[in-house]
Amino acid sequence: MAGASGLTIQAASLEVRGLSKAFGGTRVVDDVSFRVAGGTLLTLLGPSGSGKTTTLRMIAGFEDPDAGSVLIANRDITDRPAHHRNIGVVFQQYALFPHLTVAQNVAYPLEMRRHGRVEIRSRVGAALDLVRLQGLEGRYPRQLSGGQQQRVALARAIVFEPPVLLMDEPLGALDKRLRETMQVEVRRLQQQLGITTVSVTHDQVEALVMSDLIGVMDGGVLHQLAPPLEVYQRPATQFVADFIGESNLLSGSLHRDGHAAPGSLTFTTAKGLRIRTAGGAGSAHLVVRPEHVRIGAEAEAMTNRYQAEVLEILYVGDLVKYRVVVETGDELWAKTLAPATGQRWAKGGRVTVGWEPGDGLTVGT
């Protein structure tokens, strides 16, 4: 894709087929497969030890898979060494050369590819314009803020116009406010270039904000690959439901009830709470997001409604979170906007809580 950026990126599809990797007898990546179209930003999301970074390193060529293959633009590159894959990489700690200036750091990949001096100067200028670092060409990494260093690393990774960009926890070293700013900046840059990108993070907010697709991993297994909204609203497994966002995750069983409305099922928790639900992909657990749990007068009109006691109240900026317990002993979280004045419900008070069948989703293990 060519444009006003001054760089030309040929977006390419990326596919991994059955990637597996073990260290010391422990399989850290277990038969992972996915395909992303050119220009897509995929985030591999999961806790430490989930296998996401090892998957990224196998795509980059820094680790050899025990099984499986990596394809770019439908060409198998599994046996190519890392320096022949033509993939841009942004490392977690940026890996900038401290003795080189900003311009020299960005120029390095082009010099290694023996580009001419005029072309190097043109591409470096274009890359630094893209990441908004004009005027800082002569500074050294130690003279830059964390956000500026991250931009230099990005410029260096795209200056040679790779078809695929890999980012390993690219924002992990930044403070919260700067990280939020850079999430938007990185997304803007990726969309402007149209470059196929795979990013690794354990930060679910970062994944939800930046991605076209999220691949949720745990224990070396890819649990779900879907757009952010689908991952949040329709988690495929108990792990995804518990890891993404906040959830009321209730254990129990799903069954048909002759008294239920057409298309509705009944989920009974292990403690005996009966809940109307529209079903879902499994039957072992019911997921209800706290923002779907109404409380007070609003809950009175819900199909599922229960009397509860308020156990705990947490104020989180513009939101209030209530932990309540219903008659069966099942505990739930409800989340509402903070009232303009005063406290609407008190700890120890009795309230009605409720939600509609479509707000609950059953998932398997």
Key words describing this protein structure:
alpha+beta, 23% helix, elongated, 365 residues, six-stranded mixed beta sheet, 8 helices, five-stranded antiparallel beta sheet
Plain-language structure description:
The protein is of the alpha+beta class and 365 residues long. The chain is 23% helix and 33% strand. The chain contains eight helices and 20 strands. A six-stranded mixed sheet has the order 6-7-8-3-9-10, with helices on both faces. It has a five-stranded antiparallel sheet with strand order 13-12-11-14-20. The longest helix has 18 residues. The two termini are 42 Å apart.
The ordered string of helix (H) and strand (E) elements is: EEEHEEEHHHEHEHEEHHEEEEEEEEEE
Low-confidence stretches: none
Q: What is the rounded distance between the termini?
A: 42 Å
Structural class: alpha+beta
Count of beta strands: 20
**Tally of helical segments:** 8
- What can be said about the biggest beta sheet? 6 strands, mixed
Give the CA-based shape. elongated
Give a quick precis of the structure.
This protein has 365 residues and is of the alpha+beta class.
Question: Layout of helices and strands, plus pairs?
Answer:
Layout: E1 14-23, E2 26-36, E3 41-45, H1 52-60, E4 67-72, E5 75-76, E6 87-90, H2 102-112, H3 117-130, H4 146-158, E7 164-168, H5 176-193, E8 196-201, H6 204-210, E9 213-218, E10 221-226, H7 228-233, H8 238-243, E11 248-255, E12 265-269, E13 274-277, E14 285-288, E15 294-295, E16 304-316, E17 319-326, E18 331-337, E19 350-355, E20 360-363
